[in-house]
Amino acid sequence: MARNVGIKGIEAPKEACTDKNCPFHGTLSVRGRLFRGRVISDKMNKGVIIEFKRIYKIPKYERFAKKKTKVRAHNPDCIKARNGDFVTIMETRPISKTKSFVVLSKEVVNE
After folding, report:
1. What is the DSSP letter of 93?
2. In angstroms, rounded to a whole number, what is the distance separating the alpha carbons of residues 10 and 58?
3. Which residue of 22, 69, 78, 90 could cross-link 15, Cys pair, CB 3.0 to 4.6 Å?
4. What CATH class has 30-107?
5. Can you give the pLDDT at residue 104?
């Protein structure tokens, strides 16, 4: 049985998995920041690279600038995010040297 992660709007996937690092079917807890982005690479074993854009202010020039951020995240078997999918990720304890995020859900985007 899938457990609730406590985030409003995020529901457990219908598919079950045996991954211990799954926030719904395993023992991994989520905390910290929540991001939405696009999967740009799914070549890692049980991992994906997410890219999201952000806008920040440059106080000296009183202008705003755009930046892209790439984050590596754990991809549980029950979610199976693929290249080009829009996903929601959340911070967790370090899973490996570079992965400190986990994919919570895939989002449906009408373009």
Report:
1. S
2. 34
3. 78
4. mainly beta
5. 93
Average pLDDT over residues 92-111: 88
pLDDT of residue 110: 66
The DSSP code sequence of 21-73 is T-TTTSS--EEEEEEEEEEEE--STTEEEEEEEEEEEETTTTEEEEEEEEEEE
Domain layout of the chain by residue ranges: 30-107
pLDDT tens-place string over residues 65-83:
999 999 999 999 999 899 9
Residue the block writes with tokens 């079950």:
16
Task: Mention every residue, 6+ apart, whose C-beta is less than 8 A from residue 86.
Answer: 36, 37, 38, 39, 106, 107, 109
| Higher pLDDT among residues 90 and 1, named by residue | 90
For 68, phi then psi, to 5°, come to -110, 140
Residue 111 has pLDDT above 90, yes or no: no
Instruction: State how far the alpha carbon of 14 is from the alpha carbons of 17, 27, 85, 101, in Å.
Output: 10, 18, 18, 21
